[in-house]
Amino acid sequence: MDNLGSNFIKDVMIKDLESGKHDKIITRFPPEPNGYLHIGHAKSIIINFGLADEFNGKTNLRFDDTNPLKEDVEYVNSIKEDVKWLGFEWDNLFFASDYFEEMYKRAVLLIKKGLAYVDDLSADEIREYRGTLTSPGKESPYRDRSIEENLDLFQRMRNGEFANGEKVLRAKIDMKSPNINLRDPVIYRISHATHHNTGDKWCIYPMYAFAHPLEDAIEDVTHSICTVEFEDQRPLYNWVVEQCEMASKPQQIEFGRLNVTNTVMSKRKLKQLVDEGFVDGWDDPRMPTISGMRRKGFTPESIRNFVRETGVSKGSGAVDSQMLEHFVREDLKLKAPRTMGILNPLKVVITNYPEGQIELLDAEINPEVPEMGMRKIPFSREIYIEKDDFMENPPAKYFRLFPGNEVRLKHAYFIKCEEVIKDINGEVVELRCTYDPLTKSGTGFTGRKVKGTIHWVEANNSVAAEFRLYEPLILDSTEEENAEEEKTFLDKVNPDSLVVLQGFVEPNMRESMPHDKFQFFRHGYFNVDPKHTTVDKLVFNRIVSLKSSFKI
Ligand code: ATP
Ligand code: MG
Ligand code: MG
Question: What ipTM was estimated for this complex?
Answer without folding.
Answer: 0.96
